[in-house]
Amino acid sequence: MQLSIVIPLKDEAESLPELHSWIKKVMLQNNFSYEVIFIDDGSKDNSWKVIESLIQEDKNVKAIKFRRNYGKSPALHVGFEAAEGDVVITMDADLQDSADEIPELYKMITNEGLDLVSGWKQKRYDNTFTKNLPSKLYNWVNRKISGIKLHDMNCGLKAYKKEVIKSIEVYGEMHRFIPVLAKNAGFTNIGEKVVQHQARKYGTSKFGWDRFINGFLDLMTITFLSKFGKRPMHFFGLLGMILFFVGLVATLYLGVDKLYHVFNHIPARLIVQRPLFFIALTTMILGSMMFLAGFIGELILRNSSVRNNYLIEKKSNLN
User: What is residue 28's three-state secondary structure?
Assistant: First the structure.
């Protein structure tokens, strides 16, 4: 099978028939072998009934329904597990992603050898103040931290090699950073394509301002796990040693300074009355705690069932 089109959705009953017809038209025009996988993320409207009717009329349509709303990342996760196509396309169900972009995205994966292609909605029809400007700032921060030069990392329209989606785990709200997850898994050949953005035709947006705060925190999580996930002591231990050393130096300074004043009969305040004493005490305690956190992290990792899970691209001549 050439293509799997994974579509997470929530309360998009009005747009689903039109979206399906659009995708089907593009697939037939390009003679693709394909499957469309709808993931109903706990819709409260008639989305599932519409999907069931689409399944009846089109054998290429498959669907998964959550009992309640879990979020886009869990929806993509189960969609990726079910996908069988050599190239996997993700797109939103609100008709803002153009199905006409699929053939070119497919070619970029198959002909140009890219692991992942992310859409870039260069011209958007969203509210400039509430979406465009925050999105530009958000993507700028992402580029600086992740090192991946994408203009629109959170674009729902993406294409992947099958190996990519089978090698990463999308959880929490990590769908915003799938390119980062792919890069950390060793898939560094990441491209970008300017795609057409459609104005929303039905319903309202499901995302609010909180996605920017949550997204930044998730990016910090991914960045930390990618660098220190299998060696927590290298982060916590180093930081703990630095803090402890700063406190130790400050303590030694206080002690030497006190002895100097005593031996030279110079009046001096008690050590416990000096602000530096509390700074030294605090840094030494924090340093010890950070070191212990790294040690505990290593113990947890040592007993983890995934401690030796590594992504292997090829094996040859192994008996």
Answer: helix
Do 215 and 261 belong together in one domain?
no
Q: pLDDT, tens digit, for every residue of 137-161?
A: 777 777 777 778 888 887 889 999 9
Report the C-alpha gap between 84 and 88 in whole angstroms.
8
Burial of 269 (0-12, 13-18, 19+ CB in 10 A): exposed
Reported as type and span, the H/E element at residue 183 is helix 178-184
Q: Which domain holds residue 79?
A: 3-228
Write the pLDDT tens digit of every residue in 205-230: 655 556 667 666 777 776 777 677 77
Exposure string of 53-74, with b = 16+ CB inside 10 Å and e = fewer, is ebeeeeebbbbbebeebbbbbb
Structure tokens at 29: 């025009």
Q: Which of 172, 147, 175, 301 is nearest to 235 (CA)?
A: 301
Q: What's the DSSP call for residue 44?
A: S
Do 47 and 195 fall within a single domain?
yes
Positions of the chain with pLDDT lower than 70, given as ranges: 124-135, 199-201, 203-212, 214-216, 222, 226, 304-319
Whether the predicted model's global pTM rises above the 0.85 cut: no
Strands in 43-96 per DSSP E: 61-65, 87-90
